[in-house]
Structure formats: structure tokens, C-alpha cells
Amino acid sequence: MRLTQVLGKINRYRVFQLRWEQIKRRKAPESRELIHVKKLGLPTVDSSEFLQKVEEEIVPVEFNDDVKPGEPLFKPVQLDESHPLYKPDPCLCIDDSNVLLEGLEQSKLLLNSVQIQEGLPEELEDNIGTRAIPFQDTRVKRLVMYSNVYDAMQVVLPKRKDPERPAWNFARDYGIDAKRKFRLTITQMLQLCDFAAGNASLAERSHIHDAYCCANLVKEGIQVQINNRADVLVSSNSPMSPLTSSTAGNSVPLPDLHPLNFAVSIPKQHFYHNESIYPVAKGFTKSHPHTAFFHYDPSEVKNLYEEPVTESQFYSRTLVKAFAVAASRAQQLYGDNVKKLPEPITIQAVHTDNKRFHFAVLQLNTLDLDGTAQERNIFWMLPQTMDLFSECAYVKGRPELQDYNPEVFQRVLSFYCNGLP
């Protein structure tokens, strides 16, 4: 039982209602601006009357039903004979998203290329380790950690898939996407290479990102087009010198894929252009291709028959993409119909998925791809890929870099400084 007595208790709702009844009929006072306008003798109009007159003066617009609506500004592109790139004769088109079924052997047969020795040329192998920068391994480890762990970008990553449980849906993962990891890793590696090379690299080298190349070829009367993107293309103001004579590979036979044809698993298309494309203008001083870095993304590169990409197919992609850059440069210099090149074109290639690196060199001697050609294109490559690390991620909540391989950057530096004084 409450012993005290509440005094002066007020019902706020009733007070509000009482106050509202007292002041709801009060007229709003005139504003200072209105009083000042009246003192000046200027005419005034009530806003409600003004809006009423405006509504009376509005004339409704009558639409003619016979008028047809205008055509849209952007029409959807119809993939039919009216398309500007349509050609009645199909073309075998190789792009960045597909690989050859038979891998390296098929790419050699398709591109009239052979290997004359195992591994890279001795000139390149002897240059490994001749140049270095202070605290080289520490700096490379730092850039690897930054590219794979410390970068602040967080995007939705591709869906994970389990071959043993194809219907299982994993939770979506967030992190650094593969293309950004590649761009950060290669860009910072090239910065270290510029630092090691000194002022000579500024005058000799130029870096081009997303360099698109297109080469139109003919193989046994069948038109073949290679659409290629060099993710990072290092160009030079002087061409690389040939590593061997153009006739060094004439005695090496091409692979035999019987009963398969060289065009197996290459899709045919009716929509393509006939012009070759090289990403650098002919008159630019640093227009010669030197080293091309290609990114391999398992979520984008697919096998035509939905099988996992094999090591041989990974190596063949290195050859095809390097050939596209060199062939497009040759067609820019000597014309689209050139066969025997006056001077060989040499290009170095680095193919990576941000973890494993594949190093190769191509010497383009001819664009005559028929098996009866007198000359062969020569291809060198490491027989196996090299891992930059085994694990670079958060392990139990702590960032870790495991099994760092210093030889990878040494080879990148050797490729980049090849030809520098």
C-alpha cells in the first residue's frame, strides 16, 4: 500500500487538447517580408488564388494514336547475316577463354613450331642471378604478401565447386580477385626490375596493360584467327636478336595427331574481322615486343568438353598467346599476307596464375603454317612450372607466406634485363 499522496499530477494529453482548442482559431501573423512589401505599395496575390488560376489555364495535350513511337537509340545486335562482321565462310577462332584439346602437341602442329632443345636457351640461363637489388628476397616477399593478403579490395569471388558433390552450394567467399592479384604482383615486380636495371630501363622499356592482339592465319587452306590479350606487354625500342638461325628447326618433325585433325576443339565462327591488330602503333619508338605476361584464371579459361585444364594445355596456351603477339607484330611490319619473315621476331613469355609461373621463348621465323613449309618456328620453354610459394593467406587468423621460391623473380629479372647494357 502506497502511503504517499501524489500532488500536482498533470495529464499531458488533456493539456495538449485544451491548449489546441484555445489556439487553433488564432490567425497566423503577417510575416515581416509581407509587411515591408505592403509599405512599399507593391501588389500581393494569395498563393492559393495564383495556383487556381494556373490550373485553369493548363490545356490538356491530346495525343494522336496514329503516331508510331520513335526507334530506340541503341538496338540489340542481331547475330545474323545483317551483322557487319558476318562472313559466309567460317573461321577457326581461338580466344583467351578456350584451350586446345591435345595441348602442346596440337599447338605445335597448328603453329608450325618445334622444340630444338629441352629448357631455355643457354644465353638466358647464364643471365640468371647476374643482377640483383638490395634486400631482393625481402622486397619480393613483401609485394607477394601485399598482393595476395594485405590489399583492401574485397569482392565476391567465383563459386567454389566440388567435383565429388556437383550439386552442393558453398557459401560465397569474399576477397581479392585473381586478376587484381596478378596485376599487383606483376606491376610491382616490374618496378623492382626497373630499379635493378637503372636508368637504362626508362629509355629502353615501356609497359602496356591489356594489350589486345589479333592475328589472321591460314593453315592448309583454312582460315585461323587468334584473338589474344597480353595482360602486361613489355615493349622495347629495339627488337630482340634471334637466338638461333631460322633453319635450326627444319630437321625436327612436327607432332603427329593422327587420327585427329589440327583443328580439333577449335570453335568455328562467322563473325570476325579480317584485319590484324597490334596494340602499339608502328611509328612508336618502343613498339617492338620484348616480354609478354599472360594471366591464367581457372574460372575463365575452360576446356570445350568441361574437363579440367591439363598441364599440357596450360603450356600450349603459352605458345598460342606468344605466337599471337609475334604474328600480329609481323603482319604490322610486313603486311597481312607475309609468309617468310625477312627478320625473325623473338618474344619472351611468362604465363602465370599468380602462384605457378611458366617461362618460355618463341622465335617466329615464318607465318607459313602448312606442314610442307621449309622453315619452322622455334619454341623454348621450361619443362615444368615453378611455384612462387606454396601458401600465401591467413592461416589460423595470421598472414603467412610459406615456401617462398626466390628463383621465380630471378628469372623474371633475367627476362626483363635481356638486351639491356
Automatic annotation (TrEMBL):
GO terms for cellular component: mitochondrion; ribonucleoprotein complex; ribosome. The keyword Ribosomal protein applies. It comes from the Eukaryota. GO terms for molecular function: structural constituent of ribosome. GO terms for biological process: translation. InterPro entries: mtLSU_mL37, Ribosomal_mL37/mL65. Keywords: Mitochondrion, Ribonucleoprotein, Ribosomal protein, Transit peptide. It holds the Pfam family PDCD9. The keyword Ribonucleoprotein applies. It is found in: Mitochondrion. Belongs to the mitochondrion-specific ribosomal protein mL37 family. PANTHER family: LARGE RIBOSOMAL SUBUNIT PROTEIN ML37, MITOCHONDRIAL RIBOSOMAL PROTEIN L37. This is Large ribosomal subunit protein mL37. The gene is LOC117640595.
